[in-house]
Specification:
heterodimer; A: 2 strands; B: mainly alpha; 3 helices; flat
Chain lengths: ~160, ~90
Amino acid sequence: MSPTADAATRTTLNLRAAILGWILPGLGHAAIGERRRGRLVGGGVLGLFLGGILVGGVDCVDRREDHLWFIAQAGAGPVAWIADLANESLVKSGRVGELIDAPSGDPFLGGTVKVSTLKGLGHPNEFGTLFCAMAGLMNVVAVLDVLGRRPKGSA
Amino acid sequence: MSHAALLLAYLPFLEPLPGVQRWWMLLLLPLAFGISVVYKAIRMPSLDAFWRSVGTMTVQIVLGMAGLAIGFLVLVQVVVPLLPAE
């Protein structure tokens, strides 16, 4: 195989585009020249994520209480940490809404814990959490796609 | 509290959307649509018939979930009661 053909068949990893795609969904595809694809990926991922927060409230993203869900949600990028920070600083701190006593749920220690009146419960919370997690997982797929995608216009 | 008063007190993005508890099953539609948009944006070599493909995939997901729901309903309500108790 000639050196030119070898270079053409070699897989190149777009690490920079992948990192950009994680920081802002869709930006990775835009960075390799796939602007329309990038807009669609970004719109889809951020639409799902913001839709989840709209349905279930910002409490849907909780790094401490819903740790496993947050691993999936973190795939959407820094927006997941921003939502978690908003949850901590606005809702869980009681700055917005009110903190009330609720049973701790611990069968051995018992007692009460302070819970915000804005805490999501039931189907809205479940679906909001699911929307944000799906946004994160779909963005992971997008990041993996852009990692191995040949830049537009390259041979 | 009346529905109108509930809406007036509602803080978007900070608290759950009012009334979702009743029609939560309809949330499958935007969820399927969002997944389809991202999936098709990644997988389609050409984006010419993008929205038609997204619509098709959305319908496929919703029908698939409805089919699963019907299947489980039949299993739980019809098949399981026919099984011997012991």
